[in-house]
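Dear H.,

Thanks for agreeing to be a second pair of eyes. The structure we're designing against is below in C-alpha coordinate form, covering all 67 positions.
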Protein backbone atom coordinates (compact mmCIF):
# COMPACT_ATOMS: atom_id res chain seq x y z
CA UNK A 1 0.00 0.00 0.00
CA UNK A 2 1.26 3.51 -0.72
CA UNK A 3 0.93 6.64 1.38
CA UNK A 4 2.54 10.03 1.93
CA UNK A 5 4.60 10.88 5.01
CA UNK A 6 2.65 13.45 7.04
CA UNK A 7 4.45 13.81 10.37
CA UNK A 8 7.59 12.28 11.86
CA UNK A 9 9.22 12.71 15.28
CA UNK A 10 12.89 11.63 15.17
CA UNK A 11 13.07 11.24 18.96
CA UNK A 12 10.22 8.74 19.19
CA UNK A 13 10.68 7.45 15.60
CA UNK A 14 6.91 7.60 15.15
CA UNK A 15 4.49 9.71 13.16
CA UNK A 16 1.63 9.61 10.70
CA UNK A 17 1.13 8.92 7.02
CA UNK A 18 -1.72 10.08 4.82
CA UNK A 19 -3.45 7.44 2.75
CA UNK A 20 -4.35 8.43 -0.79
CA UNK A 21 -7.90 9.24 0.36
CA UNK A 22 -6.48 11.74 2.90
CA UNK A 23 -6.95 9.56 5.98
CA UNK A 24 -4.15 10.04 8.56
CA UNK A 25 -2.84 6.79 10.03
CA UNK A 26 -0.28 6.65 12.86
CA UNK A 27 2.81 4.44 12.89
CA UNK A 28 5.04 3.52 15.83
CA UNK A 29 8.80 3.12 16.22
CA UNK A 30 8.61 -0.62 15.50
CA UNK A 31 7.03 0.03 12.08
CA UNK A 32 9.59 2.73 11.29
CA UNK A 33 12.53 0.55 12.39
CA UNK A 34 11.25 -2.40 10.32
CA UNK A 35 11.70 -0.32 7.17
CA UNK A 36 15.36 0.42 7.82
CA UNK A 37 14.98 4.17 7.40
CA UNK A 38 17.02 6.78 9.26
CA UNK A 39 14.86 9.82 8.50
CA UNK A 40 11.47 10.61 7.04
CA UNK A 41 10.42 13.97 5.62
CA UNK A 42 6.82 15.16 5.23
CA UNK A 43 5.67 14.76 1.66
CA UNK A 44 7.80 11.71 0.84
CA UNK A 45 5.98 8.84 -0.81
CA UNK A 46 6.24 5.70 1.28
CA UNK A 47 5.23 2.08 1.07
CA UNK A 48 3.46 0.69 4.11
CA UNK A 49 2.50 -2.78 5.18
CA UNK A 50 -0.46 -3.24 7.49
CA UNK A 51 -2.14 -5.94 9.53
CA UNK A 52 -5.62 -6.27 10.93
CA UNK A 53 -9.11 -5.62 9.58
CA UNK A 54 -9.53 -2.88 6.97
CA UNK A 55 -11.48 -0.62 9.34
CA UNK A 56 -8.95 -0.95 12.19
CA UNK A 57 -5.55 -1.89 10.77
CA UNK A 58 -2.14 -0.93 12.10
CA UNK A 59 1.01 -0.14 10.16
CA UNK A 60 3.76 -2.73 10.59
CA UNK A 61 6.34 -1.31 8.15
CA UNK A 62 7.18 2.07 6.66
CA UNK A 63 9.78 2.33 3.89
CA UNK A 64 10.45 4.54 0.88
CA UNK A 65 8.42 3.91 -2.24
CA UNK A 66 10.57 2.70 -5.12
CA UNK A 67 9.56 2.29 -8.72
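And this is the sequence the design step returned. I haven't edited it by hand at all.
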Amino acid sequence: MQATAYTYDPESRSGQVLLDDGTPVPFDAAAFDAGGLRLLRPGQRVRIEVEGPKEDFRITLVTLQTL
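Two observations from my side: The two ends are 13 Å apart (CA to CA). The first strand starts at residue 2 and ends at 9.

Warmly,
E.
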